Amino acid sequence: MVGKLKQNLLLACLVISSVTVFYLGQHAMECHHRIEERSQPVKLESTRTTVRTGLDLKANKTFAYHKDMPLIFIGGVPRSGTTLMRAMLDAHPDIRCGEETRVIPRILALKQMWSRSSKEKIRLDEAGVTDEVLDSAMQA
To answer: What are the alphabetically sorted keywords of the record (predicted)?
Structure first.
C-alpha cells in the first residue's frame, strides 16, 4: 500500500514537472519571437499615415513615421506663442508634448553669472573654455 502511494506521488510529480517545463518552454519561444521581431528593421510601409498638409481637404500627403523615429524639439523666446503652439500640438491624438522647460534660460543665466565673476572667468580661461567656446555651445 505504501509502495503504491509513493508510485502515485512520483507519477503526479512527473506530470506536474512535465506540464511546467512545457509551459515555460512555450513562454520562452514567445519571448524569443518577440525579441526577433524587435531586432528586425522597421518596415515603414506598414506605419504610413495620411496627414493634411494644407487648407485644401484634398491636398493630403502620406508621410511615414514610426515610434522609434527621433524626437522633435520646438523652442522659442518667451511671449512668442510657444505655449499656444504646445497646447494645439498636444490636442492631436498622435502627438505628445511634454511640459515647458526652463533649461535654456537657466543655461543663459549660468553663462551670464560666469562672465560676471572674475574668479570664475579666470578658471574657465585656464581650462580653455573661452567666450567663443561658450557661445558655440549655446548655439548648438
So the answer is: Transferase
DSSP state of 54: S
CA 75 to the chain's CA centroid: 19
Q: Range with the lowest mean pLDDT among 44-58, 77-91, 101-115?
A: 44-58
- How many Å apart are CA 138 and CA 12, to the nearest integer? 71
Strand partners, 63: 49
Amino acid sitting at position 14: L
Asked whether the beta carbons of 86 and 100 are under 8 A apart, the reply is yes
The whole-angstrom separation of Cα 121 and Cα 113 is 9
Query: Is the per-residue pLDDT at 46 higher than 60?
Result: no
Q: Which residues pair with 61 in a beta bridge?
A: 51
Cα–Cα distance list, 99 to 70, 89, 135 (Å):
18, 12, 26
Q: Just list the catalytic residues.
A: 100
Look up cell 519571448; give the residue.
Answer: 31
Phi, psi of 120 (to 5 degrees): -70, -35
pTM (whole model) above 0.70: no
pLDDT at 39 exceeding the cut of 60: yes
